[in-house]
């Protein structure tokens, strides 16, 4: 569950926030005048989420309702590197369905970065991870949504 508190709790209820952050390993979202102001998390958790896209994915995830959906274009490194393990585990805990679309060709040639399309949906079912590979971004126009719902390769299902 998302822990959202007014920024005044940082001063008035510091021991409670410290326990959540350090002992329960939860991030605490602080608001000022009803709007998001900052996130408090342990240094260990922060270092694991140091990529800007990781923090953005976590923040957006925490803003979704119980049946919310999320779509991101992310570096393909999320699938491979050790320091992205924490975000992969986070996604599996937060979403009931995760679809990954990868590309055989570079989508953004000028930045020379392999990317994936990450499609996530919250829900009450057990986590299910699906994968589909397409030639390039132009192929997205022709993707059969049924294929994404039932891809040829299921990577993970609990």
Brief synopsis:
The chain has 158 residues and is of the alpha/beta class. It has helices at 8-12, 14-23, 43-48, 52-63, 85-94, 145-149; strands at 3-6, 28-32, 35-40, 69-75, 97-103, 115-121, 128-134, 153-157. It is 30% helix and 30% strand.
Characterization of the model:
- By secondary structure, this protein is of the alpha/beta class.
- The protein is 30% helix and 30% strand.
- The protein is built from 6 helices and 8 strands.
- It has helices at residues 8-12, 14-23, 43-48, 52-63, 85-94, 145-149, and strands spanning 3-6, 28-32, 35-40, 69-75, 97-103, 115-121, 128-134, 153-157.
- The protein is elongated and about 55 Å long.
Q: Strand arrangement, largest sheet? A: 4-6-5-7-8
Structural class by SSE content: alpha/beta
List the total number of helices: 6
Low-confidence stretches: none
Helicity level = 25-40%
Distance between the termini: 21 Å
Tags for this entry?
single chain; 158 residues; alpha/beta; 5-stranded mixed sheet; 3-stranded mixed sheet; 6 helices; 8 strands; elongated
Q: What is the secondary structure topology, with strand pairs?
A:
Layout: E1 3-6, H1 8-12, H2 14-23, E2 28-32, E3 35-40, H3 43-48, H4 52-63, E4 69-75, H5 85-94, E5 97-103, E6 115-121, E7 128-134, H6 145-149, E8 153-157
Parallel strand pairs: 1-2, 5-7
Antiparallel strand pairs: 2-3, 4-6, 5-6, 7-8
């Amino acid at each position: 569950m998302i822990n959202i508190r007014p920024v005044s709790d940082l001063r008035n209820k510091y021991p409670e926030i410290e326990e959540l952050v350090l002992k329960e390993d939860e991030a605490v979202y602080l608001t000022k005048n009803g709007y998001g102001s900052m996130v408090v998390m342990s240094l260990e958790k922060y270092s694991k989420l140091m990529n800007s896209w990781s923090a953005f994915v976590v923040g957006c995830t925490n803003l979704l309702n119980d049946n919310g959906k999320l779509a991101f274009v992310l570096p393909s490194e999320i699938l491979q590197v050790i320091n992205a393990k924490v975000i992969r585990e986070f996604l599996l805990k937060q979403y009931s369905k995760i679809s990954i679309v990868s590309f055989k060709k570079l989508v953004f040639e000028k930045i020379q970065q392999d990317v994936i399309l990450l499609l996530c949906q919250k829900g009450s079912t057990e986590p299910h991870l699906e994968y589909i590979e397409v030639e390039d971004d132009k192929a997205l126009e022709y993707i059969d949504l049924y294929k994404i719902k039932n891809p040829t390769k299921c990577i993970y299902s609990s």
